[in-house]
Specification:
Layout lengths: L8 E4 L4 E4 L4 H12 L6 H8 L5 H13 L3 E6 L2 E6 L3 H14 L4 H10 L3 H12 L9
Antiparallel strand pairs: 1-2, 3-4
Length: 140
Amino acid sequence: MPEGQIDEPAYDATDGRTDRRPAGELEAGVLAALWAADGPLTPGAVQLELGNGLARTTVTTILTRLHAKGVVTRERSGRGYAYAPAQDSHGLTARRMHAELDKDEDRGTVLARFVSDLSPEDEQLLRSLLDGSGAEGGTA
C-alpha cells in the first residue's frame, strides 16, 4: 500500500468477517464530506457526515494524515482542530498528476506518453490551454 494511504478493515455483521476497504476509500469519503461542507469541520462533525459507523478516532487519524500530506488545512477549534480541504477536487487531481510526474526522471517521455494516450477532445483541450485560448474547467 502506498505511503500515507489508509486501509481499515470493515466488519461484516452478517458473517463475522473483517474485509479490507479499497485503498483510499476512507480518505475519499472524508474529503467528500469536507468539500460538501460550508466551512471547516471537526472530526466529530466529519464522523456525523460520513454516517458509516467509523470511530471518531479513526476519522481523526484520517484527517491528521491528510493534513500531513498537505491535502487539508486545520485551525484550532476548542481543544482540537477543525479541518478544511486545501484545494477543490480538481486541484487535488492536478496535484496528484504532478506528484506522479515528479516520480520519473524522464519527464519528456512521461509527458509524451501521456499526451499520446489522450482522446482527440482532451488533446485539443490541452492544446487550447497551452496556447492560452482555452478556459480552465471547460471542454473543447
